[in-house]
Amino acid sequence: MTEIAKGLEGVQFTESKLTFINGSEGILLHLGIPIQEWAENSTFEELSLALLDGKLPTATELATFDAHLRENREIPHQLIDVIKAMPRGINPMQALRTAVSYLGLLDPQSEDITPEARRAISIRMIAQFSTIIAAINRAQEGQEPVAPRMDLTHAGNFLYMLTGHEPTSEQARLFDIALVLHVDHAMNASTFTAIATSSTLSDMYSCITSAIGALKGPLHGGANEAVMDMLDEVGTPDRAVEYISGKMDRKEKIMGVGHRVYKNFDPRSRVLRDYAEHVANKEGKSNYYQILETIEKTVVDRLGDKGIYPNVDFYSGTVYSDLGIRKEFFTPIFALARISGWCASVIEYSEDNRLLRPSSVYTGEKDAHYVQIQDRQ
């Protein structure tokens, strides 16, 4: 009997120096550095460059990279026209997938798969993802896209393009931390999909479009949106224990709780919990946070010994909501951060590329013969 690894769980097909996860102990490292240290000390720009190059950058290298990101924030007017022409009410991930694919049509370097080209395209995509997503949000609301500003950080500029108002330094930093926490997470479904596409020697835009398609699925992206739906359903903190206990009694899935890898607290959720509490208290929006706090305690008390704890999606939705981001755009925000991890993983795998060609166990017949259509029952 051949043992089948359902969902490829436990299958190791490549090596990577980018991200390490120890799920049983709740550890997440990028280049050997704990995610908590990245969140506290670094920025989205620095972590993106560190993953692309596989090392901590010097001040000069980071300044150059940051300048390149700022220079490449604008998107072609043809793409803006396409975004404006998209039907209202569509899934924002559909819009993002289409926009990125169209962007590839406008890039004369798109078919170049040399290491130098992959890196240059990656920098442009990292810069332009924020502009695309903000433009999609504005267009879907019937508003004109806001042009990027060169004097703001990556996170601050996105919030500016999204709302038309310059964010406070605290808002920009909070969003920056949220991006840092989502930049990369080892061999998740979307990263694996990007690598699988890349292994055929396809172009970077195809790789990233494939990844977006994988992230769109509710089992990968979208959990933080479902958490917000759950909070609205609970309504008030005093209903939280009864609500969540009922779900556990019925063995129903609790969004934002449990993880395929982590059997301990997701370290990213610990960082976001502190910021969610700070924002909730400052903005007078403690209702959501109190519900989450109650749900977490109830779940951990009953299911913690089974390795079920809150994950990063549990608190991220409340942070995004407090920043004025509509819940329909939570998954595109995920992509806004993960684009750096996708690109870095594709580049790393391309250094020692091998076409991915897994096999399956055949369970069909082996002694059948063709039957003429008029003789079939």
How does this model look, in words?
Keywords: Transferase, Tricarboxylic acid cycle. Belongs to the citrate synthase family. This is Citrate synthase. Pfam families: Citrate_synt (PF00285). The chain is 57% helix and 3% strand. It contains 16 helices and three strands. The two termini are 34 Å apart. α6 (115-140) runs parallel beside α7 (154-163) and α9 packs across α16. It has two domains: 19-169 and 183-218 and 338-350, Citrate Synthase, domain 1 (Orthogonal Bundle); 223-322, Cytochrome P450-Terp, domain 2 (Cytochrome p450-Terp, domain 2, Orthogonal Bundle). The mean pLDDT is 93. Strands 1-2-3 form a three-stranded antiparallel β-sheet. The longest helix has 26 residues, at 115-140. The chain is mainly alpha-helical and 377 residues long. It is globular and about 70 Å long.
| Mean pLDDT reading | 93
CATH architecture of the largest domain: Orthogonal Bundle
Number of helices: 16
User: What portion of residues belong to β-strands?
Assistant: under 5%
- Structural domain count: 2
Helix content: 55-70%
Task: Give the CATH superfamily of the largest domain.
Answer: Citrate Synthase, domain 1
Which residues sit in consecutive blocks of at least 5 with pLDDT less than 50? none
- Main beta sheet: 3 strands, antiparallel
How many whole angstroms does the radius of gyration measure? 22 Å
Q: What string, H for helix and E for strand, traces the elements in order?
A: EEEHHHHHHHHHHHHHHHH
SS-based class? mainly alpha
Protein name: Citrate synthase
Keywords: Transferase, Tricarboxylic acid cycle
Pathway: Carbohydrate metabolism; tricarboxylic acid cycle
Organism: Deinococcus aerophilus
